[in-house]
Specification:
Elements: E1 5-9, H1 12-29, E2 34-37, H2 44-55, E3 65-68, E4 70-72, H3 83-90, E5 102-103, H4 112-125, E6 131-134, E7 156-159, H5 162-168, E8 181-184, H6 187-191, E9 195-200, H7 206-214, E10 232-237, H8 238-241
Parallel strand pairs: 1-10, 2-3, 2-6, 3-5, 6-9, 9-10
Antiparallel strand pairs: 4-8, 7-8
Helix pairs in contact: 1-2
The structure holds 2-phosphoglycolic acid.
Amino acid sequence: MTTMKIYKVTDYDALSKRAASMLAAQIIGKPDAVLGLATGSTPTGTYQYLRTWQREGILDFSGIRTVNLDEYRGIARTNAQSYYAFMRENLFDHVNIKEENTYIPNGEEADGDKVCREYEALIRRLGGVDLQLLGIGQNGHIGFNEPAESFAEACHCVDLARSTIEANQRFFERAEDVPRQAYTMGIGTIMRAKKILLLASGREKAKALYQAVCGPISPKLPASVLRLHPDVTILADEECCAGMEF
Ligand code: PGA
């Protein structure tokens, strides 16, 4: 039986504030916590609240360590669409976190085995992730763990699903610029986090969320595996819960 906690909130702003509050509690409760962070449209509002609360002196990031879920393969850090750039723009450049305490898979390194092996070892060395923030893809992916025949245990290089490439296209000028591969934490890596917070906003995510919570636990809908984790909180806005009772 799942111990998942699911909270329905009114809208995106309420979701962002609630998510930021959970991260804030972690930061205040453990000033050297390891936060697993996510990119994409969903967490930007959350990061905005964290920035504000740090500016107001409520939060202190000076001892916080972060590990991001994923990064495109073959993209330079200087590329505005890299997840490295995203994190700087949305959070790191605006809070008192130490750059050397922020980790993202190195998308510029072509040797995928090396990147993934080192990233997995790094997470273990840091003592594991205290709180992992997740979004959910329209196809149910978490990180860049796309629907597959089996769950990937550790960090690995993935071929992105066509739907993911299409969803990401909005950020790139030309379709051919959208990366086709990424380095991502594996399902095992994510499941080893002590706590998980998944954010789901908007109608486009409703089906994936429903399947994750109510469908079979299957690698074909990667987020469904979270039902096997002992400490998962899901925050979903009303649009994302439309037609669902849970
Ligand atoms: P999004 O992506 O927040 O941009 O919708 C979430 C995801 O694909 O995991």
